[in-house]
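Exercise: predict the fold of this chain.
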Amino acid sequence: MAPESWVPDIARAEAPGKVQTSAPGKLVLTGEYAVLDGAPAVSMAVDAQATVRLATAARYRLTAPGLLTSPVEFSPGDSTTLRWPGVDAATRRQLALFESIAAPLLARHDHAPFEAELDTRAFFSDGTKLGFGSSAALATSLAAALERYLNLPTQTPAERLAALLAQHRGVQGGRGSGIDLATALHGGVIEYTLDTTGATVRPVELPANIHWLCVWSGAATSTGDFLARLAAWRTAEPAAAGAQMASLADGARVAAAALTDGTRFLRAVRDYGAALDALGKAAGIDVVSRAHRRVAAIAAKHGAVYKPSGAGGGDVGIAFANDAEVLERLREALVAAGLHCPAVSLCREGLTIAESIAE
C-alpha cells in the first residue's frame, strides 16, 4: 500500500505483518520560549525523516542505525519498563524514548513479537545531531507504528498529540511545549499555541516572497538543559523573568501576525531574535551564542536576517531574505567560512503510514 498522509480513520479489522511510518523534523521560525507562556509559535516541517519499521518475527529485536552500534533484544515488561537482557545502563538511557512509548502498549495488548528498526540518520551529519527535533519525530513515528501494528483504534490528531506530549515530557523531565511533535504530526508550516486546555494547531504559509536557509552553528546543545535553567531563573527572579517573557510573547504575537507580509515578517524575525538575545542575557542562558552571533554577522553583511531556531545555544539557525540570490550568496560565504548549510527543504506532509497486511 502506498504511503498515506495521516488522517483519522476507522480501526482496521486485521493487524499488519509489517508497518512503516515516517515523520519529519522541524525548524522553529518564531515563538521559542514564549510558546511556554501561551504565545503563538510558528514552526516548519523539514524533510529530514525519522522512520520506524516493524515486522513480525520470532523474537523482539531492535536496531537503530546511527544510535546503536549493534542490535539489541528486548521483551515486554510492565507498563513502564521493558526487559533488556544483556543491555548496559548507557544503552538503556539511549532507548528511554522507545521504552516510554512501547512499554505501556506492549504490556496491555496481545501481539506477535516483532523486529523494530528506528532510523534517524537524516538528523545527523558526521555523527553530530543537527537539532531538527529527531526525538519528537521518532516518538511520533514510533507511536503510530505501534498503534497500527497492535491494531488499535486510530487516534485523532489532538488525542495523539496529547498522548505524545505526556510521554515526551516524561523523558524530558516534564518540560517542553510539544511544538516539535505537532510539526511532525501535521507537516507544512503551522502556528502552535499551548494553554491549560491543551494545544491548538493551525496551518499557515510563509509569505510568498520569503526565502530561507538553514545553517548549522557548529555546536550541539541540550534543549532540556536550557529549559531547566530557564525554569530555575523564573523561580528565582519572577519579576525580571516576567518582564522578559512578556516582551518575548509580544514579539511572538507580532511575528505570527506578520505572516501575511514579507517585509513585516523579516522585521518581526529580526526583532524576535533580539528579544531572544535579551532573554538569554537576563537568564544567564547563552541562547544567542558566539556561534550564532558569527553567523548573524555574516548574514547581515549579505542583507539577510538570521536567528537561532529552537532553544539556541547551538544546533541550527535560520536565515531569511526576500531575494533567493541573497541567500545563495550567503550560503557561499558561510561555506567559505567553514560553516555547514544542511540541505533541507519544506516538508508538506506530516506523519505518513505504509503497511502490509499479514496473510
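Check your answer against the key: Residues 1-13 have pLDDT under 50 and may be disordered.
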